[in-house]
């Protein structure tokens, strides 16, 4: 079977980068695949979280999944910590993966910054937990943004090493040689890397201290308009050709956002706006963004008051996720030689 798994961290307000880089693909894939979309709260705590805020963010992310159009009845929306298999399999995979592999992960280096000695062990181990998330369900396809490519490659390496290291036990228990399928990253999408509105060289991120750096899915029309109007640009007119966007990261980002939201290429967008000034283009971008994101924000606002409903969606999702995970975890234990 083809099975899709992906997750987003409840570390803050979901933004346009998460939407264009990940959620749009989630929505498309649910038409053709069985999908699990996870609120990865265990990943969130790899950096310090305030417990009350974390709880609110878990519910907000769940609401965002639903508001964006994920069918929570057909697909599985759930919260990572409610299915114990994630942590359990992560431990097993910790013992399969090598320290040298983790040392190559660039996201850890970026997130830990200069004070690496003080980063949590969890932050270092993050990619192993991510591999466990995917392999627990034997997921075959993982839609993510560009920034997660390296972690997906690691998940494939871990799956392959497990299959090889335990080949004879896997065979002895009658499982297929490829006990863990090698998960395929699905990176192509309308915008693989949306950049900050304040700095075109930094990715748009939930944890950026400046709220003006991102468009949140929960922003109302006024906030969207204000952030786009304030977005950093350069003094030149928009180019007529895509090549003209090189070395103009802010211009490239805004054109890319417009293209992704309307479903055209950057070249198409420049056919309309090339040669014009930023203020005309920004006005059009505000209208488009409000048109596409306004209904999502309104639905999120409505769901914010429906805590009992949101919590129930998560309980139901976890029950269904557990039913898929449990036989795989039991098999892993048998393969490893654990007594059950
Ligand atoms: N700027 C982005 N452009 C395109 N895709 C993005 N994604 C995140 N930022 C962008 C994709 O969204 C999914 C969920 O990401 P995540 O929350 O699990 O982790 P992240 O990549 O660390 O996201 P943030 O927003 O930057 O969070 P913080 O600030 O907490 O680290 C992933 O598929 C990711 O590729």
TrEMBL record:
Q: Biological process GO annotation list? A: tryptophanyl-tRNA aminoacylation
Q: State the EC number(s).
A: 6.1.1.2
Q: Give the keywords, sorted.
A: Aminoacyl-tRNA synthetase, ATP-binding, Cytoplasm, Ligase, Nucleotide-binding, Protein biosynthesis
Q: Which domain of life is it from?
A: Bacteria
Which compartments does it reside in? Cytoplasm
A single GO molecular function, which one? ATP binding
Q: Where is this motif: 'HIGH' region?
A: 10-18
Identify the main location: cytoplasm
The keyword tRNA processing belongs to this UniProt entry's keyword annotation: no
Reactions catalysed, as given in the entry: tRNA(Trp) + L-tryptophan + ATP = L-tryptophyl-tRNA(Trp) + AMP + diphosphate + H(+)
Q: Where is this motif: 'KMSKS' region?
A: 203-207
Q: Which GO terms describe its cellular component?
A: cytosol
Q: Which Pfam families match?
A: tRNA-synt_1b
Q: Where does ATP bind?
A: 9-11, 17-18, 145-147, 194, 203-207
Which SUPFAM superfamilies does this chain map to?
Nucleotidylyl transferase
Q: What is the protein's quaternary organization?
A: Homodimer.
Q: Which NCBIfam families match?
A: trpS
The family note in this entry says: Belongs to the class-I aminoacyl-tRNA synthetase family.
What role is this protein assigned? Catalyzes the attachment of tryptophan to tRNA(Trp).
Q: Which PANTHER family match?
A: TRYPTOPHAN--TRNA LIGASE, MITOCHONDRIAL
> What name has this protein been given in UniProt?
Tryptophan--tRNA ligase
Q: Which organism is it from?
A: Beijerinckia indica subsp. indica (strain ATCC 9039 / DSM 1715 / NCIMB 8712)
Q: Which gene encodes it?
A: trpS
């Amino acid at each position: 079977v083809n099975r899709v798994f992906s997750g987003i961290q409840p570390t803050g307000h979901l933004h346009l980068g998460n939407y264009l880089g990940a959620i749009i693909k989630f929505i498309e894939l649910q038409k053709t695949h069985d999908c699990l979309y996870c609120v990865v709260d265990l990943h969130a705590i790899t950096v310090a979280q305030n417990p009350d805020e974390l709880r609110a963010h878990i519910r907000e992310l769940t609401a965002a999944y639903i508001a964006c159009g994920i069918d929570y009845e057909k697909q599985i929306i759930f919260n990572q910590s409610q299915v114990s298999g994630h942590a359990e399999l992560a431990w097993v995979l910790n013992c399969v993966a090598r320290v040298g592999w983790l040392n190559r992960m660039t996201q850890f280096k970026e997130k830990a910054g200069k004070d690496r000695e003080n980063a949590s062990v969890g932050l270092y181990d993050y990619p192993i937990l991510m591999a466990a998330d995917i392999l627990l369900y034997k997921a075959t396809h993982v839609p993510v943004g560009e920034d997660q490519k390296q972690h997906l490659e690691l998940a494939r390496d871990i799956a392959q090493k497990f299959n090889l290291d335990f080949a004879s036990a896997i065979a002895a228990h009658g499982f297929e040689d490829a006990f863990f399928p090698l998960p395929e990253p699905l990176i192509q999408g309308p915008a693989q890397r949306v950049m900050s509105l304040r700095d075109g060289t930094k990715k748009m991120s939930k944890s950026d201290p400046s709220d003006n750096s991102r468009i949140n899915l929960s922003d109302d029309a006024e906030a969207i308009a204000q952030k786009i109007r304030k977005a950093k640009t350069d003094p030149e007119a928009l180019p007529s050709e895509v090549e003209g966007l090189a070395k103009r990261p802010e211009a490239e980002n805004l054109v890319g956002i417009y293209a992704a939201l309307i479903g055209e290429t950057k070249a198409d967008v420049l056919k309309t706006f090339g040669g014009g000034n930023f203020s005309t283009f920004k006005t059009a971008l505000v209208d488009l963004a409000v048109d596409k994101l306004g209904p999502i924000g309104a639905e999120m606002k409505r769901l914010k008051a429906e805590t009992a409903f949101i919590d129930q969606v998560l309980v139901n999702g976890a029950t269904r996720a557990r039913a898929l995970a449990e036989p795989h975890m039991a098999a892993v234990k048998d393969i490893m030689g654990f007594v059950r």
